[in-house]
Design goal:
By secondary structure, this protein is an alpha/beta fold. The protein has 2 domains: about 110 residues, Enolase-like, domain 1 (2-Layer Sandwich), CATH 3.30.390.10; about 220 residues, TIM Barrel (Alpha-Beta Barrel). The protein is about 35% helix and about 25% strand. The chain has 12 helices and 15 strands. An 8-stranded parallel beta sheet has the order 4-5-6-7-8-9-10-11. The chain has a 3-stranded antiparallel beta sheet with strand order 1-2-3. Strands 12-15 form a two-stranded antiparallel ribbon. Helix 5 runs parallel beside helix 6. The longest helix is centred in the first third of the chain and has 18 residues. The radius of gyration is 19 Å and the shape is globular.
Length: about 350
């Protein structure tokens, strides 16, 4: 098998701070499979929150490439093999799954979203993320996002004065705002904090408390004046039923659940249970990982797919973003090519 696996370091345009960490760089693992003139690509983005490192993801990808079926279109067999090898999903599983979907769509000669049966569906606009910093700096980044055409922001909270941050941003940004404290709040304080955000026209609050406290989530949800979306609390399809009734929606990340196939299963389960879905990404991804999610985007209500827009050295180009909306290439598969 003519495959290459490599780790690259991506650089954030500005330091990216959330409630539990600050990033200036991010290591991601890229995999390429060459079969004649066809090059299929995948990406794994490690997350320390889930115990992943670039080294562990790279090794797991190398070990998992043998799972690829001879027939590029036999995604069902691959899905069964991945479920055995990677029962909890994760970044390595995601990299192999993305590569396989890129390979299948290229073999079929169609863009991935067509292979998925999502043409001519219209995807939602993506949000642009503003990391934690001083309120005036966050407001300046919000204003810059508006200039770039973004009508939706995701604002990271969880450190400092949330009200000061939202007040500063609202002076310079009139669009939709979603907030994400990344599980920084306690069950007791979360409803009060949420109440103070209501005057700033917030669409929803993402993962306000610790992801393993489902009873606490139910208590917060019952008292919250704003809709709740969960992220870290839902990793795979089996978690959807657990949070149903305790939130209005879930954040599905391909890197978290294990790729396109797992994400589709989560989306279907969520919709069956009356939940909305946001497709999300990690703090920094290349256009390979983002393209996979963007091709799935017509199936969901919300998107937060800006990981490639936050870095300075994306090695690929695929799905562009103009005025906050995806512009798909006509190339088959992911449509990813070297930048």
């Amino acid at each position: 098998m003519n495959a290459t696996v490599r780790t690259v370091e991506l650089h954030l345009a500005v330091p990216f701070e959330i409630s539990r960490a600050t990033y200036t760089t991010k290591r991601v693992v890229l995999v390429e499979l060459r079969e004649g003139d066809r090059v299929s690509r995948g990406e794994g983005v490690p997350d320390a929150f889930f115990g992943e490192t670039a080294e562990s993801v790279e090794q797991a990808i190398r070990d998992g490439l043998a799972l690829l079926p001879d027939d590029p279109l036999d995604l069902a067999t691959l899905d069964m093999r991945l479920a055995i090898q990677f029962p909890h999903g994760g970044a390595a599983c995601c990299a192999i799954d993305i590569l396989a979907h890129d390979r299948a769509a290229q073999a079929a000669g169609v863009p991935l979203r067509e292979l998925l049966g999502l043409v001519p569906g219209e995807p939602p606009a993506t949000s642009f993320t503003v990391g934690i910093d001083e309120p005036e700096l966050m407001a300046g980044r919000a204003a810059n996002a508006a200039v770039m055409g973004f009508a939706i922001l995701k604002v990271k909270l969880g450190r400092g004065d949330d009200v000061s941050v939202l007040a500063a941003i609202r002076e310079r940004f009139s669009g939709t705002i979603r907030v994400d404290p990344n599980a920084a709040w306690s069950v007791e304080e979360a409803p009060k904090r949420i109440s103070r955000l209501v005057p700033y026209g917030i669409e929803f609050v993402e993962q306000p408390i610790a992801p393993d406290d489902i009873e606490g989530l139910r208590a917060v949800h019952a008292r919250s004046e704003l809709p709740i979306v969960v992220d870290e609390a839902v990793v795979g399809v089996g978690d959807v039923a657990i949070v149903a009734g305790a939130c209005e929606g879930i954040n599905v990340k391909l890197q978290k659940c294990g790729g396109v196939a797992a994400a589709r299963a989560m989306i279907a389960e969520a919709h069956d249970r009356g939940l909305k879905v946001m497709l999300g990404c990690r703090a920094a991804e290349t256009s390979v990982g983002i393209a996979a999610a963007a091709n799935l985007a017509p199936a969901v209500e919300w998107c937060d797919l800006d990981g490639n827009l936050l870095i300075t050295d994306d090695p690929f180009r695929a799905v562009a973003v103009k005025q906050g909306r995806f512009v798909y290439p006509r190339r088959p598969g992911l449509g990813a090519v070297p930048a």
